[in-house]
């Protein structure tokens, strides 16, 4: 199966505004790096369609969708709309493409759902992964919830059992709202404890559909490998899904400014390949990721992993130029990049001890998983 990459140019120059974490380019960097490395031939690329408002009503409240369209047209919202739909706030600002951009990500994920609903395949959609979006409200930089829309598209195509795995640094609260109590959905989320949105506690089962693993500060590659092999892979394999959706947010790496986790991008790529071995219908989405250099590298490497492409030790000049061309206005100097972020794609591994408290939490979920899927 030749993987497909769904992308669009709308992400290249779109920004949430001067100070916002999403003022940086991300998807365009992953595309530019992939092309510079010769990894993205035309035949594997699909332009993301923009979802029409009515198509979003499959999950989103029509009044909210209309408010989003109107916010883009007006460039502002009323106090009533701000309060009702959480739009025009510091986290969820009104910006120039505030409807078109999330609607394009939604359209890409719905296209991915339709493609995988029609037959086996591998689809990569790094603009997707907006896992905080709620039916009638923007939430956590997410205006629409494209993972939910992708999964509903799979359902519309006739598939029932879906495993959703989320390794973003933040809990997937919006996806949990959508599939709470659904016996044919398994949601596994690994996220930093004591961090916004403060949902997804170890004991929160979402009506029996979720395995939530809050992880401590400083999570290292060895701990993520343990989580992958002791929890994620066996739980998904036992669930025997018809399709797997992986939200591969890039904000759990050491250099990310929005989490205190300490993974290298190798950890993410290893999850990508382990889950790919479990299914013939595989959708990989993006998500968070707020350091422009690390997010582009991680997401280009996901594409390499899906295609079993060799990642070179040193980037060729064209790819290095992509990295050197990025900037990060307003970032603290302590977060400025090491030279390796310009010249390589793969991080050095970040191993460490597997802490006992993490082993204990995984054991709780292993026991619950046995009940869930047994
Ligand atoms: Zn995140």
Order of helices and strands: EHHEHHHHEHEHEEHEHEHHHH
CATH class: Alpha Beta
Based on secondary structure, the structural category is alpha/beta
Main sheet: which strands, in order across? Answer: 2-1-3-8-7-4-5-6
CATH superfamily: Histone deacetylase domain
Strand content: 5-15%
Briefly note the CATH topology name: Arginase, Chain A
Main β-sheet description: 8 strands, parallel
Mean pLDDT over all positions: 96
Low-confidence stretches: none
Tally of contiguous helical segments: 14
Q: How much is the radius of gyration in Å? A: 19 Å
Topology:
Layout: E1 4-7, H1 10-13, H2 27-36, E2 45-47, H3 53-56, H4 62-74, H5 79-85, H6 100-118, E3 121-125, H7 146-156, E4 162-166, H8 173-179, E5 185-192, E6 210-215, H9 221-239, E7 243-247, H10 265-276, E8 281-285, H11 292-306, H12 317-324, H13 340-343, H14 356-373
Parallel strand pairs: 1-2, 1-3, 3-8, 4-5, 4-7, 5-6, 7-8
Helix pairs in contact: 2-11, 2-12, 6-7, 9-10, 9-14, 10-11
The structure holds zinc ion.
Pathway: Ketone degradation; acetoin degradation
Protein name: Acetoin utilization protein AcuC
InterPro entries: AcuC, HDACs, His_deacetylse_dom, His_deacetylse_dom_sf, Ureohydrolase_dom_sf
Keywords, please?
eight-stranded parallel beta sheet; 374 residues; single chain; Arginase, Chain A; alpha/beta; 8 strands; binds zinc ion; HDACs; acetoin catabolism
């Amino acid at each position: 199966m030749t993987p497909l990459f769904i992308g669009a140019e709308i992400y290249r120059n779109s920004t949430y505004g001067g100070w916002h974490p999403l003022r940086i380019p991300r998807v365009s960097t992953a595309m530019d790096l992939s092309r510079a490395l010769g990894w993205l031939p035309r035949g594997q690329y699909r332009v993301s369609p923009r979802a029409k408002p009515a198509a979003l009503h499959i999950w989103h409240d029509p009044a909210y969708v209309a408010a989003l369209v109107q916010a883009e047209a007006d460039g502002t919202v009323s106090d009533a709309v701000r309060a009702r739909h959480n739009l025009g706030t510091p986290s969820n600002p009104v910006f120039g493409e505030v409807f078109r951009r999330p609607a394009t990500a939604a359209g890409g994920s719905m296209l991915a759902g339709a493609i995988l609903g029609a037959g086996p395949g591998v689809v990569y959609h790094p603009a997707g992964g907006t896992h905080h979006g709620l039916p009638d409200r923007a939430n956590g930089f997410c205006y629409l919830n494209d993972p939910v829309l992708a999964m509903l598209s799979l359902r519309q195509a006739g598939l029932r059992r879906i495993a959703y795995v989320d390794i973003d640094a933040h809990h997937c609260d919006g996806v949990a709202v959508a599939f709470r109590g659904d016996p044919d959905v398994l949601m596994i989320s690994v996220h930093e404890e004591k961090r916004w949105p403060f949902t997804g506690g170890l004991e929160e089962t979402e009506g029996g559909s979720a395995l939530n693993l809050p992880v401590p500060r400083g999570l290292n590659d060895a701990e993520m490998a343990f989580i992958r092999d002791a929890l994620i892979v066996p739980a998904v394999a036992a669930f025997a899904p018809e399709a797997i959706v992986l939200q591969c947010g890039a904000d759990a790496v050491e250099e990310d400014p929005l989490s205190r986790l300490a993974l290298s991008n190798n950890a993410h790529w290893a999850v990508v390949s382990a889950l790919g071995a479990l299914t013939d219908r595989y959708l990989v989405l993006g998500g968070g990721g707020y350091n422009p250099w690390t997010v582009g590298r991680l997401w280009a490497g996901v594409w390499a992993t899906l295609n079993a492409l060799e990642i070179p030790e040193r980037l060729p000049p064209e790819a290095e130029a992509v990295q050197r061309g990025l900037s990060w206005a307003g970032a603290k100097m302590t977060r400025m990049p090491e030279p390796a972020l310009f010249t390589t794609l793969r991080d050095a591994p970040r191993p460490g001890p597997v802490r006992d408290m993490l082993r204990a939490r995984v054991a709780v979920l292993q026991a619950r998983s046995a009940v869930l899927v047994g």
